[in-house]
From TrEMBL:
Family membership: Belongs to the ribF family.
Protein function: Catalyzes the phosphorylation of riboflavin to FMN followed by the adenylation of FMN to FAD.
Single GO molecular function: FMN adenylyltransferase activity
Gene3D superfamilies xref list: HUPs, Riboflavin kinase-like
Protein's organism: Streptomyces carminius
Organism ancestry: Bacteria, Bacillati, Actinomycetota, Actinomycetes, Kitasatosporales
Keywords for this protein: ATP-binding, FAD, Flavoprotein, FMN, Kinase, Multifunctional enzyme, Nucleotide-binding, Nucleotidyltransferase, Transferase
Pfam family name, one: Flavokinase
Domain called Riboflavin kinase: residue spans: 187-312
Name assigned to this protein: Riboflavin biosynthesis protein
CDD domains linked to this entry: FAD_synthetase_N
Length: 312
């Protein structure tokens, strides 16, 4: 799969393509349907499928300080998109100048002049251009002028028929913030993942017999609510069952919020400086401060037993 950053990275001889545009944070099940339809249409026409996304998140440029928690960094999104059959991902630097493009200017600059779009596939709530003035109707109207067609794909809905809510990154962020990682996984189609480099902490876990990887998360990461979880520690492609702690460690009067993962029954790992991932499967309990160290150790042993059971 080709990865481009900015319009200038697109090959000069790039031909026609089938395109979808969006932030696609998380590449959740709703996104997967839209991207899947994009790939299907591309295969029908014998053309490449291209996903256009943005960095930073548009809201950070339009409303500084409002950057939403991110469900997946761009390299992770690209991996997931490649798995869906996408041929190229274009990450557009979202600047103040870029935000001022009218819908028509956006279409000409991106879809017509550089990607030579034959078909554009979007969800019904797609908006684009200055002040989000463009809609799928605008996109289709411009398509009649610039020789591309538009396919609109309905969003998946979570919950009972007629009573659920559309799958969305906003929904997943809320579920993650509430600690409902099982609900988040339902919408994502996989466990929620947090990534970062393993850094040295207070090393209390090692002293207590549960050495943990203290993960320094990437900026703007959507970190689950404070508590203990079952999941996996992923190192160099290997997924190890893990008990995961998120929070400030009140037992030792901590103040800094951390993500720490104990790879169950593994005391031989040397992970400092490595980029790792933590996948959250299930919530076990909230963060607690115990009256004694013995009480903490008993609870940690129970957490590990529960995590083992949940992870099979």
């Amino acid at each position: 799969m080709q990865r481009w950053r900015g319009l200038e990275d697109i090959p000069e001889d790039w031909g026609r393509s089938v395109v979808t545009i969006g932030s696609y944070d998380g590449v959740h099940r709703g996104h997967q349907v839209i991207i899947g339809r994009t790939v299907e249409r591309a295969r029908e026409l014998g053309l490449p499928a291209v996903v256009v996304t943005f960095d930073p998140h548009p809201s950070e440029v339009v409303r500084p300080g409002s950057h939403p928690p991110l469900l997946a960094p761009h390299h992770r999104r690209a991996e997931l998109m490649a798995g869906l059959g996408v041929d190229a991902v274009l990450v557009l630097p979202f600047t103040e100048e870029f935000s001022r493009l009218s819908p028509a200017e956006f279409v000409v600059k991106v879809l017509v002049d550089r990607l030579h779009a034959r078909t554009v596939v979007e969800g019904p709530n797609f908006r684009f251009g200055h002040r989000a003035a463009g809609t799928v109707e605008t996109l289709a109207e411009l398509g009649r002028t610039y020789d591309y067609d538009v396919r609109v794909v309905d969003l998946f809905v979570r919950g009972a028929a007629g009573g659920g809510e559309p799958f969305s990154s906003t929904l997943i962020r809320r579920l993650v913030a509430e600690g409902d990682v099982a609900g988040a996984a339902e919408v994502l189609g996989r466990p929620h993942r947090v990534e970062g480099v393993v850094v040295r902490g207070a090393q209390r876990g090692r002293e207590l017999g549960y050495p943990t990887a203290n993960v320094e998360t990437l900026p703007h990461t959507a970190v689950p609510a404070d508590g203990v979880y079952a999941g996996w520690l992923v190192v160099a492609g290997e997924s190890m069952p893990a008990a995961i702690s998120v929070g400030t460690n009140p037992q030792f009067n901590g103040t800094e919020r951390t993500v720490e993962a104990y790879a169950i029954d593994r005391v031989d790992l040397e992970l400092y400086g490595l980029h790792v991932a933590v996948d959250f499967l299930a919530y076990i309990r909230g963060q607690e401060k115990f009256a004694t160290l013995e009480g903490l150790l008993e609870r940690m042993a129970e957490d590990v037993r529960m995590a083992k059971g949940l992870l099979g």
